[in-house]
Design a protein that fits this description.
- This protein is α/β, with parallel strands linked by helices.
- The protein is built from ten helices and 14 strands.
- The chain has helices at 27-36, 95-108, 125-140, 162-165, 168-181, 197-207, 250-263, 278-287, 296-299, 306-323, and strands at residues 5-7, 10-12, 16-18, 40-47, 59-64, 80-86, 113-119, 145-150, 186-190, 211-214, 218-220, 242-245, 268-272, 291-294.
- It is globular, with a radius of gyration of 22 Å.
- The model has no long low-confidence stretch (mean pLDDT 94).
- The structure holds flavin mononucleotide.
- Residues 19-22, 44-45, 58-59, 84, 86, 88, 90, 117, 149, 151-152, 189, 216-217, 245-246, 249, 272-275, 294-296 line the site of flavin mononucleotide.
Length: 372
């Protein structure tokens, strides 16, 4: 029985990575993450443009409680995590800061996987060249792979972040530019804020991507406090669209993963969204993903998720043992074909079928409502 997987030609001692986000924003975090047992990390996105984050908090957590069913950043006793909300930009450290650190991480942990997340614009040849400069800098430092960030949801520039991920032409062109110089596998991280993510995934594969990664956070707003009339997170009363992650996005991200895995059953996918223990990771593997990444749950567990990775590894071991499988590969994709068109789902026939006109339908009475 083994936890190890091979994904896009890279060997992982386990299929669990910290995603590109605050848990991977520094060398010390990443070293701690490796000591804690993560199979790999995707380094916080590195760019060539200067980055200045907004005043104050860049991430907050939505909680909900059985008393009020409200999704709010206000702390209440007994409230459970609903999601994370952030408007953080990419790393504010330049490429020159990251290069020696990537080198040291790999020297200290040669068996762990370091993927460098990178981002530039796409509106000119100079910007496409920037993707190549970032790729070459990171791979020369020893990164095992590149993850192209086509998914940051809070970019004003029309040629950057999720604006690339919403445009199949740009997805292909940028991937091609990166592949031109890459000697290591290239993953592309797509935005969920698109009509049909299969279109952009196809474009990335046309450009030569070795894997597609999904999801980044979903564009979203914090709620307005009805007492103060202010957004629960704001600067001078103002807010911009930010990104929702954590448990709230698990079903949404599963749906995107299912569509892509069905469209490209032989391609590699790395899954992200709402994972905090093995039960959620299992869903992604069963749909066909080959690795799983985590952000929100790790942020809330000593910044890098030492308990999260313990639970993921223990959960995988127990799952393999219980089912008599030897590796992730033996169950990966087993439920890929169970997602079908609505018309393929069996209906009650004859007497049992009421033609949709059940008396009391949509009334709050469990004996007459259709179960959900
Ligand atoms: C504060 C914060 C910063 C993030 N920064 C990045 C980033 O720089 N690059 C990136 O590709 N994704 C970034 N993400 C997205 C995460 O990597 C991940 O895709 C998302 O949070 C969904 O995973 P989760 O449900 O486990 O949180 C960020 C997320 C958060 C919460």
């Amino acid at each position: 029985m083994t936890r190890s997987v091979e994904f896009t030609g890279i060997k992982f001692e386990n299929p669990f990575l910290l995603s590109s986000a605050p848990p991977t924003e520094s060398e010390s975090n990443i070293m701690r993450a490796f000591d804690a047992g993560w199979g790999g990390v995707v380094v916080k996105t590195i760019g060539l443009h200067p980055v200045v984050n907004v005043y104050g908090a860049r991430t907050k957590f939505f909680r909900t409680s059985p008393d009020d069913n409200n999704v709010s950043m206000k702390k209440r006793p007994g409230a459970a995590l609903h999601g994370s909300w952030n408007w953080e930009l990419i790393s504010d450290k330049p490429l020159e800061w990251w290069v020696p650190r990537i080198r040291r991480m790999k020297e200290a942990h040669p068996t762990k996987v370091v993927i460098a997340s990178i981002m530039a614009g796409s509106g000119s040849d100079k910007e496409l060249r920037n993707w190549q400069i970032l790729t070459q800098g990171c791979q020369d430092a020893g990164a095992d792979g590149i993850e192209c960030n086509f998914s940051c949801p809070h970019m004003d520039r029309k040629d950057m972040g999720s604006n690339i991920g919403k445009d199949e032409g740009l997805c292909s062109v940028v991937t091609e530019a990166v592949k031109e110089v890459a000697k290591v596998p290239v993953w592309t991280k797509l935005t969920p804020a698109t009509q049909d993510i299969v279109v952009e995934a196809a474009a990335c594969f046309r450009g030569g991507a070795d894997a597609v990664v999904s999801s980044n956070t979903f564009p979203s707003l914090p709620i307005i406090d009805p007492d103060t009339l202010e957004f629960e997170i704001n600067v001078d009363g103002l807010v911009s669209s930010g990104g929702l992650g954590g448990p709230a996005i698990l079903p949404l991200s599963l749906a995107n993963m299912a569509r892509m895995c069905q469209a490209f059953p032989d391609r590699a996918f790395s899954a992200i969204g709402g994972v905090s223990d093995f039960s959620q990771a299992a869903s992604y593997f069963l749909l066909g993903a080959g690795t799983v990444q985590v952000c929100t749950a790790a942020m809330l567990d000593q910044a890098i998720g030492p308990n999260v990775i313990k639970r993921l590894n223990a959960g995988l071991d127990a799952f393999l043992e219980k089912n008599g499988w030897n590796s992730v590969e033996e169950f990966r994709g087993l439920r890929r074909d169970r997602v079908v068109a609505q018309s393929k789902i069996r209906r009650p026939e004859g007497e049992a079928y009421q033609g949709g006109y059940v008396e009391g339908y949509a009334m709050p009475d469990e004996s007459t409502t259709v179960s959900s």
